[in-house]
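User: Here's a protein and a ligand (flavin-adenine dinucleotide). What would the complex look like?
Assistant: Let me lay out the input and then the predicted complex.
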Amino acid sequence: MSDAAPTNASELAGIPIIPAVDQHHVKPNAPVIGKVHATYLCTTSRKAAGFVRHIEIDVSGTALENAWHAGQSFGVIPPGTQSNGNPHKLRLYSIAAPTGGETGDGTIITTTVKRVVDEHWDTHKLLEGVCSNYLCDLNVGDEVTLTGPVGKRFLLPENPADHDYIFIATGTGIAPFRSMIMDLIKLGMPSRTALLMGVPYESDLLYDQTLTGWAKEYEHFSYHTAVSRHLTSNQTKKLYVQDRLSENFDQFGPMLASERTLLYICGIAGMELGVFQILARLLEPEQLAQYLHLDPEIANDIDNWERRMIPKKIKKTKRVFLEVY
Ligand SMILES: Cc1cc2nc3c(=O)[nH]c(=O)nc-3n(C[C@H](O)[C@H](O)[C@H](O)COP(=O)(O)OP(=O)(O)OC[C@H]3O[C@@H](n4cnc5c(N)ncnc54)[C@H](O)[C@@H]3O)c2cc1C
């Protein structure tokens, strides 16, 4: 990890050993063809502000079969060309299936895709993101061109049971956590695992029923939601993920104080700043040092932190894992 603060073992306890996993089995110059196995909306309601699909792809018989670990991503090459005539570029999607896939035999890889829609900068006409809409339009049986897997750090540690986990997601950032939680479930959910999920509207919660079910079934797993644009039956104020961390500090505080705990953050680029600020406000300096190393210049000016200070002035330690896009 390039932006990790320099540490030594006595200074920082609980440093995880990250397994050395293979990546790039399938390179963009020799992609493989998968077939859509299932596709469905995974928001809580069709009235959600965004359209997000759970998409399962059969990769049996290809070099991607059984070739990924929870937390990695795969590449999709959409058909067609850009306006300059060049082929469309590859886009990455986090794997939402556990290691071994949806069916355990390595054949079904999954992701969670949000349709990107925008207004054209020049014409203000509707702009549909190329790859996300291509993927979400696919039907069962359709072919899709794939590469990967990609990722060697945003992974569960070598011995998952040696650690506890705080997973913080916004939107489709839930994908790698679905994958990791399913891996932990296969191990009998040996670790205290808290998932914190942030969305704009309650209807945008993803895999909500499944996650609620797991929280009931597994004593060590808890599921916390933060809805930022309206009040809900269990939320009397609008909350971002960092606000939920603060609201539920009676649960998160002891977890963060434990040497076993690792912090994973995935989703909307920029979300990490708010999380880092709340950690800096809530944790005692020696606890904070387990997760972040601050440039003394900014340590007492938390309100004025900006994203560009990461990673130069706000360095995460090896107990923090970040994937934002
Ligand atoms: C490691 C990693 C993991 C990821 N995992 C996921 C995942 O699990 N799920 C997921 O949904 N996404 C994921 N992404 C994001 C994904 O790779 C794509 O970036 C995303 O789907 C958008 O791609 P697109 O082709 O649909 O949009 P694009 O066509 O690439 O457009 C992207 C954006 O560009 C802007 N834009 C481009 N041209 C114009 C223009 N002329 N006028 C106005 N705006 C313009 C628009 O704002 C648009 O939103 C991940 C990214 C990374 C790096």
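Summary: The radius of gyration is 20 Å.
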